[in-house]
Structure formats: C-alpha cells, structure tokens
Amino acid sequence: MKKFNIRKVLDGLKEVSSSTPSVQVGPQENHLVQETLQSDHFQLCKTVRHGFPYQPSAMAFDPVQKILAIGTQSGALRLFGRPGVECYCQHESGAAIIQLQFLINEGALVSALADDSVHLWNLRQKRPAVLHSLKFNKERITFCHLPFQSKWLYIGTERGNIHIVNVESFMLSGYVIMWNKAIELSSKAHPGPVVHISDNPMDEGKLIIGFESGIVVLWDLKSKKADYRYTYDEAIHSVAWHHEGKQFICSHSDGTLTIWNVRGQGKPIQTITPHGKQPKDGKKPESCKPILKVEYKTTRIGDPFIIFSGGLSYDTVGRRPCLTVMHGKSIAVLEMDYPIVDFLTLCETPYPNDFQEPYAVVVLLEKDLVVIDLAQNGYPIFENPYPLTIHESPVTCCEYFADCPVDLIPALYSVGSRQKRQGYSKKEWPISGGNWGQGTQSYSEIIITGHADGTVKFWDASAIMLQVLYKLKTAKVFDRNRSKEDKGNTEVSDEDPFAIQIMAWCPESRMLCVAGVSANVLIYRFSKLEVTTEVVQLLEVRMQYELNETESPDGGGGGGEQTSAHPTPGASPQTSGPPSHPSTSSNNSDGGNIPCLKVRSTPLKQSPGYQVDLVVQSVWVSGEPPQPITSLALNSSYSLVVFGNSNGLAVVDYVQKTVVLNLGTVELYGSNDPYQRQPRSPRKTRQPSGGLCDINEGSATSEDRCKSPTSVLMSHSNLQQFYNGGGRGAKMSRKLSLPTELKPDLVLLSVCPPRGANPLDHRDNSFSRSRSSSVTSIDKEAREAASSFHFCESFARKGDSTLTPCLYVGTSLGTVLVLALTLPPAGEQRQLQPVIISPTGMLVRLKGSVLRMAFLDSAGTLLPSAFEPWYEPNVTADGEEREKVRKRRPVSVSPTTSQDFNESQFAVICSEKQAKVISLPSQTCIYKHSITETSFILRADVVQMNQGVCVACFCANGHIMTLSVPGLRPLMDVNYLPLTDMRIARTFCFTNLGQAMYLCSPTEIQRITYSQETCENLQEMLGELFTPVETPEAPNRGFFKGLFGGGAQSLDREELFGEIAAGKASRSLAQHIPGPGGIEGMKGAASGVVGDLARARIALDERGQKLGELEDRTAAMMASADSFSKHAHDMMLKCKDKKWYQF
C-alpha cells in the first residue's frame, strides 16, 4: 500500500516538473502553423431527432394537411409528414401527453397533458412553438374534443364536468356542463370521469358525453339539459357515432360492443361480444378483456367498418395484442408485435356527417408504427418510410462519418435494396403532408449502429434525413444451436452473445471490422457479387499475459511473455476451418481452448454486401474466459487489424490470416516501464473483466465521482461495452468464477447486472465510476488496457529522418507507445513474407486514459490514414486479371509521402483529462492543455471543419468543448446536457464538418451541430409542416333534406359560449399562460433588430389593447353613472310632491 502511494507522489512530481509553459520549443517551431479556426466558427444547437418516439402515449392526424402527431410520456411531441419531413418539440413541464387534437387545416394543434395543462401549438413555422397554455388548478383533465371547424374546445374532467375553452384566445367560457345536471336526479352514485365527448354529426347542438361508470348522456347545448340518458352496467372505454347521427356504438370493459339508437331509451339495440364464446343455452357470452377503443366508419357502397383494439378472450394467454376489423360478416384479427397505445382510422373526408370512406388504419404500438391498408384484401400493411427501426434490437454502439466517398451511399443502397421484405401494400404512404427544406448539403453522411443481436445497420444521414441503407447480420457466422451440455459447461450467461461492442470502418476501402461481446473480431470485405464460403476462416488467439520472474515456458508461442524485438506470431493461424471445441468444464486445469462462440462448420451463403473474410476469436485460457475487447482499429493499406483488451493487444494480418503480434501492454515498454510492477501469480490476482456494469450505485463520494476511472481500467472504448437492453436484462460482461478471497474486495466491480434487471431503468440514471481503494488490492498498475490505436506513416523513433508505417498505442494509464511496422512489398510478396513489428518505446504520458490520437503535417493539415481503394474481391475473371486487381498499390492520401525529410509532424493526443501536441521527430511536447480537472472526457475526436482542424470533446459533466490545433486554444465550451444516462456516454460521436450525434433514448438518435455555418443554414434545411391546402367542400344536403329538414343542423356556438351569454368563468379554475410562440412566429427564433422590432410591435399592440380596454371600461362606468343619475332624478320627481304618510 505504501509503495503504491509513494509511486503516485512520484508521478505527481513528474507531472509538476513537466508542466512548464505550454510552449516548450524554440519560437521558430511555434509560428509555423497559422491557425484559422476562431470561436465565432462554433455554435451548438440541436438539428433533428430521428427514430421511434420513446414511450408514446397519444396520437392525432390532420386529414387535410395529412400530418401525423405523436405525443410521449415525457412530454415530447413528434410530427411526421411525407418521408423526410419530421419535427420534434418538447413541452417544458415534461409531463405525459394524454391527448392531441389538430385544428384541421389550420396549422395548429392542441395538446392535453397529465399535469392538467392544455397547450396550443403553432405549426405554421418550421420550429413549432406554444402560442397559449391553460393550466387547470382544481380539476384533472381526462378527455378533450374539438369539433371540425369549431373554435370551442370541450374539456372533460375527472369530476365528471365539462368546461369549454376558446382556442383563439385560450380563455374559459362561463358555460359549464356539471355532472349532477347531466345524470338523473334519482341516481345517487357519481358517474365517474368523462371518458368521451363528441357532437352529433347531424346536429352540433347535441353533445354525447360518456362517463366511465357506463352512463351515456345526450346533452342539448341550447336548452342546457339532458335529452336522453343511456345506462349499461359495464364501464365504458370509448364511444363512436354513425355518420347519420341516429346511432352510436360503445365499447366496454367486459369485451362487449353495444349499439344504441339515439331516440331509443333503455336497452341497446344490439350487444356483441366479438371474441367471446357464445353458450348454446342462450345465456350471456363469457366476458373478455376490455375493448379500449372502437371506431365506426361507413362507406357509400357496402357494409360499415367497426374497428377496435382489445376485447380478446381471457383464455388466449400469451396471444399477441390484436386489432380487429369487422366488415359485414367478416372479422379480421390483426396481430401486432407490441401492445397497442392508440389507433386512428384515416378517412377520405374530414366531415363527420358524410360517408367516411375509410382507407387505412394507423396503429401506434409501444415500439412501432403500423399503417394498414383497408382497401386491399387481406389488409396488407404499408411499407414504413420513416427511420423507426433503430431500436429493432437495442443499440450497443454507434459511429458517425461525414464527408464520405460519393460512391459509397449508392453502393450500400444497391445491396441493401435487395434485403427488403415483400407483401407490402402497393399504394403510396398515406401520411404525405408538408414540404422538404430548400437548403442542401454538399457532403454525404453515414451513421453505423451496432446492435445487441449482432446486426450492424448502415444509415444514410445526409441533409438532416435518415434512411436505412443496408443491414448486416454478423450472427450468421456462428452456430446458434449450442447444445445444452455446452451451455452448462462454458459458463456463458449472456442473453446477447452476438452483441456488437466496437466497430472500425474504412470508408475508402469499405473494409469493416467489428468486435463482439464474446471477445471475437470479425473482418468483412464489401462485394457486389454473391459468394458461398465453404469454410469460414477462423484464427484463435490466446491472450494471456503473466508477469512472472521466470520466463513463461512457451516462450514466444502461445501468448506468454515475448521479449524478442521482432516477436514471433502469438498464435498459430488455423485457417483450415474451425477446430473441434472440447466441451470440457471451464475450470479445467489443462486450459482447453474453449471459444465463447462456435464458428459455423457448414458452408455460408453470403449475399452481395459485407462478406466475412476472417473471424478472430479470443479463447478461454486456464479455465478463464477471455477479457472483453476494449479497443479496435484497422488499416486497409497495411491490411492489419489491431485489438486490445484490459492488459494486452494483438495485431492480425488479414491477408495472410495470421497473428503478427500478441503482447501484454506492459511488455511494450521494454526496460523503460515507468511502473515498477510486481510479479504476479497466474491465478490468485485475476481481475474480472470490468465493463461499465460496475456503475457505482451511490456509494462513491462526490470526490470519487469526478476522478478519472482509469483505476478500474475504464477507457473511452470500454464505454461501448455497456448498453441498456431496452427492456431486457442484457449483459455485456462475462460471468467469472472469482477466487473466493478476492470477492469481498470486488463489491464495486459487479461483473454483470442481476438476471432480469433492466439496465435501462436501474443503471442508466447514475453516472459515477468507482475509485474505490479496493481496486488497489488487485494491483492496478499490473493491468494496463489498450484504450486506443492509430495507424499512420510517421517518425517511429526520436530523431528519425524518414517516415515509416507505425502503430500508436494509447493505454488506460495515459501512456502512448509506438510500434514500427515493416511491411513486405505489394503483390505476391505481401502474401508470403511476414509483417514485422518492432516496439520503439514510449512517446508521451498524459493524465487519464488515452482516448484519441491524430497527426498533422508541418502546415497543420490533418493527415488521414493510408488506405487501399476498394476493389471487388470476388472477381470471376481468370487468375491473371485477378492478380492485377490485387496488385493495385494501396494509396496513402497523406501529403507526408512527399514531405522533405527535415519537415516535422505534430501528434495530437487527447486523454480523459488533458490534450498534448508533440512535435515529431524531436518528440517534444510543444502544447499542453488541461481540459478538465473535476470531471473526465467520455469522447474526443480530432475533426476537420471547413476552416481548419480542431479537437472536439464531450465531458461527463455535460460540457461540449472544442480546442484549436496545434495550439490547443479553447474555442467553444457549452454546458449542453447533464449526463444522466449511460446511453449517451456510450453512443456520443463527433464527426467532421461540425456534426455530432447520440442516442437520447433507446429508440431515438439526436443529431446536433457545433458549426456556426450549419446553425445558420438550419432554418432553410428544415422541412415545412404546414402547406396551404383548400378544405374539401362540405357534403351536399340534397333537395328534399333542404326542403323538409333532416340535414346537418348548425349551431352558433359563439352565441352560446361567448361572454355575453355564458358570462365569465371562475378565475380560480384555470390559469392562462401566454406561450413564446407569438414572438417566435414572427420570424422563427427572431433575433437582432428584426426581433426587437417584432417584440416592440407586440408590446405596442398589447399596450394599445390594454388602453382600449381601459377606455371601454371608462365609457361603461360613465354610462352607468349617467343611468344612475337619470334614475335618481326620476325618483326625485316622483317623490317630490308626496307627503310622508303617502310613502
């Protein structure tokens, strides 16, 4: 323990001694680079949100504008028009949305929230805003109804009363329908909350009110009394009218539907239990589950549609949620994948008193949106064009690429278009409102998501849209059907053994490399041709590093200590196919090579797209499972892949299918190891693979929380190993058999959440990583994770005069180590001669785990890694032609190839705490910047902006920062969001040209920009939700109906509900809150002189209005005084001549 503390003190002294002024070289090197980026090039704002609205709760549709609105339990409002027209808004309170109502074809929407507030949204601007709000103080809102082309909104409450709101002024009317007036006087019980309100389609003066207890009342608005009452002994969930206004239908809690005549008292004319078994003796059918909603839609030709959700028999246990469509005598039961939240029938007319002609049903599910075509036989669904399948399997990691090669998106789209399902409706998607934005982006963007089931999805994210391009299923490479015997013996407790942990992609060569949770690395090539792979190439790696004083008996062979300067391969390549895996017990003392997943032994048919080239599998060693992979990188020019775990790394040559290097991180130091590490025995001090499942549940002090997590061997890339299972107890870390004497010390290092735990709910909301002293019992310095890698052409050693291919390794203890690569010449030699890797020592040390490395040339230009252009790997031509394709020399796009020998490079290195710029080949630190003292960085990227290069960082305290390079001047620091959620930490990505993204919920991607230029152009790029459309003509009443009556009866609601007739409502009932939308409507988010003028004009209008009101009041008082004076004068004249006894 003492030794550890002394070492920390020495490290601290070392840091102090090196913290001389940030410029440590002569002035001539300082002023070589002219920095072009300034603070005013940066601005942070949200751009667009994609994906399925998380935890939806309400839905509405505008049948004229053809816009769909979805509300969620967190107060989010998502609006969808034609594909590519989407909008996201948020209620400030964050309360759940219980109902949405469009002002049809008016460009406005009313939302009712669970906190008893009602809001009016203006949709006529690109970023909708709230115009008015009304907060009820005494009553709870349960149902709202806004008749078509009316400005009076009916609001039903939990007490059973109905209040009426003018949607123009958002003021309450004095007209109130009290529950005790609506029900019969003889009824002693309260009827319950209002569950339904709607006006008779043929008579606006008649309102039907449904109470939860089973009472339905037809209320006459003019006479202010109930015309009819209908009573049923089961609770009501919803009511729907027949368009002629003579009948209505109710759905009940016992699975029945009752149809009533408006003028018929007493009993319903028909009672149906659609899914109940009918007893033969004529008794009442068995009760079923509640029918939560029913809709009754008519057609000119043929039978009406009765559509409802729920109502299934109780004995259908395990049956999926259903939507039932009754059309004449046919009943179609449509099974859904998730519970139904709400559904809406889309009709040809917005008028409730016309034949409805339904053509589709929009069904909002808990995790999906389905649109059913009612016009085609079999009711096929429409193909959904929105990117709502992000969460099909929980997202475990993301990568974001801007400014990709122009041919990449068409190539991915062409292979992805073959994967589409068949059997969709042939019709156009019915939600087709709005217009696309005018602005365009000149560059293409791609987002890649890795998922828990092993799928990798490529998305076209260009021009603030999102569209799935291609889906890769990596699990196909493995055998899925493991025998029970295998399952029991290998101690694999993961529910998602195929989950993707880290991805590395080279857009130019189209090479893809993914690391899975089962410590496997898959290398894929892109091909436009189908191929059948007889045997999937497998390479097994034994990554075991023991620090014993005596050299390991297997020398340089199976992953023991390797001390030679040119190490021999650390594992023998096995390219002849997968070996037979012994199903011996995992605590087998002979350490059989038990893999976590078994590569398939049968031929694999690979469709055009990504095809597996090589599988690299870390195997169990000495009865212990392999450590999770913490970092990954690939270089297509060198044909190398490198991956690291918590104490070592392996380099694989995917051309020769061999392991080139397999070393412990400690051994890369050679004799320069700054940590005097203790020799360890192989078994006693084994540390578990600590993923981010060891989130401290509140037991760390605030001081602990702000310290870097390197002590638990967490690096940025480890974050990608933790993900929330989206409702499933998904686990990323392996379950280990720990020595009993270690277990008490590992309380804060729980290897995986308990079975069945939902990491989304229980784990995401705390974000602190333990710095417990218990970790020191495992001798932290002995285990140093490889946290990041970077391939480049650079100066491998101090004072080198030539550029050579290098691999830079960043570790969890803040060290950057350099490996020089000696590559055989291209062509045939590349396939025969070995790649030689020589560790050349340590470059620099930083505080905290190394997150990102990048290189600049002497002019300060970012040096991209060398790459090989893409070629078709499955060329069918003869051997000579194929060889010609293979011989294409990998192109390095870096300008360094033509650099003079005396020119320098700059290495930019960012860790969890600080950034440093190192001049090469002199290896001197010329700039240093401490980014954060009290927190730590989760994601850092060196990105190319239009005006230059910068370092972008996302900090655990929610700050987003940018620094100039090479000078490391702070350019932007915005407190963007407090990190309450592990998901954000795991999925946050920066990319070039000022773009960034993260998963803001398990189902949604939030994109943001930190570029001033993009912020300015955003308004143009956003789509328009509202487009001027003429409202369809009202249905023709016909000659006889006009002559004898019987057509639709209109009602002057203004006369009934206005202040003159109804008086004023009680002030204590609800509070009116003006929204910000009035000002914003002037000019988006108005700023500068125009905004000030607009605000001044509104203020003047308001002042004028108040003055006008004052004038009116004064005039009224004067009139009242005149009237009083007149009455007094008349009285005086009358009484003037009367004697006292005559009074």
From TrEMBL:
Which biological process terms from the Gene Ontology are attached to this UniProt entry?
Answer: exocytosis; Golgi to plasma membrane transport; protein transport
- Which CDD domains does this chain map to? R-SNARE_STXBP5
Q: Where in the cell is it found?
A: Cell membrane; Cytoplasm
- Topological type in the membrane: Peripheral membrane protein
Q: Which residues form the V-SNARE coiled-coil homology domain?
A: 1078-1138
Give the main localization category: membrane
The WD repeats extend over 229-263
Which GO-annotated molecular functions does the record name? GTPase activator activity; myosin II binding; syntaxin binding
Does the keyword Repeat belong to this entry? Answer: yes
- Gene3D superfamilies this protein is in? 1.20.5.110, YVTN repeat-like/Quinoprotein amine dehydrogenase
**What UniProt keywords are attached to this protein's entry?**
Cell membrane, Coiled coil, Cytoplasm, Exocytosis, Membrane, Phosphoprotein, Protein transport, Repeat, Transport, WD repeat
Task: Give GO cellular component annotations, separated by semicolons.
Answer: plasma membrane; SNARE complex
Segments of skewed composition (Low complexity) = 572-589
* UniProt cross-references to PANTHER family, sorted A to Z: LETHAL 2 GIANT LARVAE PROTEIN, SYNTAXIN-BINDING PROTEIN 5
UniProt lists the family membership as follows: Belongs to the WD repeat L(2)GL family.
Q: What is the protein name for this chain?
A: Syntaxin-binding protein 5-like
**What organism is listed for this UniProt entry?**
Kryptolebias marmoratus
